[in-house]
Design brief:
This protein is of the alpha/beta class. It has one domain. It contains five helices and 16 strands. Helix 2 runs parallel beside helix 3.
Length: 243
């Protein structure tokens, strides 16, 4: 896996990792978004059968990031579980490993739209949002947010033409005042960072840290390919056109 990429947000120096985690050295803090643990079991209950290994894969990647950076604190900025009962469906092994990580670290769960209540029986602090020095943490970006906001929710992805082929992957999106994290979970889709819903949240000039093939690159958004046709129209406009 490649070396992390340096990012600056509201004066804070951060490291964007190819795992999808963000590390804040000055606060010894690892930040992740949208784990969506137990998404596979949630979909199975609704009749969509997928290999039931998403939680195991996500926990393994999270543990690897923790071992790599040895943080004092972990902040999960929402949608850590795919639904409010997700923590109750954890296997015994997954629950024990996740609980062990939580108990040896200062762990913060930021509430998301998928998991607005605390996970059952795992420990850690729960908050709707938090502020630490120059940075603030919430699940979904506030359109009028203050500088230093870190969030998730949108699962940003980006596409780039490289050596005659299209390269795509999850990405960190940052304009120096706001940073949106990629989804960390194994079974998560994505929204193109240049689609209207995401583009409106950033200054005219922003950049991404694009993850592809276990590597990560900083790229100006101006060099990215436009979003796929289905993502080029804002949801309200799509509804209006459909009527």
């Amino acid at each position: 896996m490649s070396r992390p990429v340096d990012l600056v947000l509201n004066g804070a120096e951060l490291l964007a990792d190819a795992s999808g985690a963000l590390f804040w050295p000055d606060r010894d803090t690892l930040i992740v978004a949208d784990l969506h643990l137990e998404k596979g079991s949630s979909l199975a209950r609704k009749g969509t059968l997928l290999p039931p290994y998403d939680t195991r894969a996500t926990i393994d990647r999270l543990l690897a990031a923790i071992q790599n950076y040895s943080p004092r604190r972990v902040i999960c900025v929402g949608d850590s579980f795919h639904d409010v009962a997700g923590s109750e469906r954890l296997s015994g092994e997954d629950r024990a490993e996740l609980a062990a990580m939580i108990h040896r670290l200062d762990w913060v769960w930021i509430a998301g739209n998928h998991d607005p209540i605390p996970p059952h029986g795992l420990g850690g602090a729960v908050a709707d949002g938090m502020v630490d020095g120059p940075l603030s943490f919430r699940h979904e970006a506030d359109a009028a947010g203050s500088p230093g906001e870190i969030s998730g929710h949108y699962h940003p992805v980006a596409r780039l033409r490289l050596k005659g082929r299209t390269v795509s992957g999850r990405c960190f999106a940052n304009d120096g005042a706001r940073l949106i994290l990629p989804a960390f979970g194994a079974y998560t889709g994505g929204l193109d960072v240049r689609s209207p819903d995401l583009r409106r949240l950033f200054a005219p000039r922003f950049e991404v840290a694009l993850i592809h093939a276990r590597r990560i690159w900083r790229i100006p958004a101006s060099e990215l390919l436009p979003p796929p046709p289905a993502q080029r129209v804002a949801p309200l406009e799509r509804r209006e056109r459909a009527q």
